[in-house]
Amino acid sequence: MTELNIEFIKNKLNTTNEDELKNSTDFQFVLLNITAINPSVFGDLFSNLKRVNLNSNAIVTIEPKLFSKLVNLEELGLGFNKIETLSADTFNGLVNLKSLDIGNNQINTIDPKAFEHVVNLEILRLSYNKITSLSEGIFDSLSKLESLSLDGNQLTTLSSNLFEKLINLKGLFLSSNHLTSIDPKTFNTLTKLDTLFLGSNNFTSFDVDTFKLVTNLNKLYLEKNQLETLDPQIFSTLTNLVEIYLFDNKLKTIDPYIFKNLKCLRNILMEHNEIKQDKIELYLPESVTFLIFKDSNNPFYYEQENHLDSVIRPSSISRPTSSKWTSTTRPASANVQLNF
């Protein structure tokens, strides 16, 4: 058992000079098999710290108010440990914290007030824990948050106002959970959102209004779900969308005009669905330079293929009368990189 305490810190920093310790702004204690943290270790002596990195240790418990004297701390790394619980006072006092990484732990319980004190937080990573649910209002104090990572958990539902106060959010990561549906109001206040990850869940469809108000969206990831149909108007307001990922679903067909309004769209990836035809009828904006809809087991698929030549432009513009129609990046040049 290795405890993080004053003597441990002095030894690692190779100093006993308290003035030198007091002037420290950066602690990097990574891969040291730390299993516990002395409750009094972060006292007034370390009030000037701006960054503390305790990633990749074996920490199980964070005592309440452990960091309360670190009023100048801006970055805290607790990822890749064995933490199971976040209490109401775990992050008490961290009023200037901007980045918090507690991903890749064993977290299954989070107090509804756990993030109440970190009001200046901009980045929150909770990825790859064992979170099954999130309390209503848990993120309400995080109005400055720009990136929220919840991917790799065990979430099955989200309350419709879970993200309501996250008015500055730009990136939302919800991939690799067990979500089957989303209330159409869930993203309504996220007007600055530019990247949304919903891949590797269990969605079979989305309400037509699900993405209606996230009009600044740049990248939308819907891959590896169970999508069987898409409403013809589902993306109609996403006029800033550049990339859309629909591969590995169960789509048999797709409305010819579903991408018509997306004037910035460049890359469409929707291979490994149940679309069997060699040619597909689609009205594509001129901005589109890369389209994949045919299957391949070639590992260099994206380097070599582009299916724009297999698109048939519809002869006349017409839409289904019902918005609930239920029938069922990478540009053309391989030298331009697509960021997944």
UniProtKB/TrEMBL annotation:
The lineage of its organism: Eukaryota, Metazoa, Spiralia, Gnathifera, Rotifera. Keywords: Leucine-rich repeat, Repeat, Signal. The keyword Repeat applies. It holds the Pfam family LRR_8. It comes from Brachionus calyciflorus. The keyword Repeat applies. This is Uncharacterized protein.
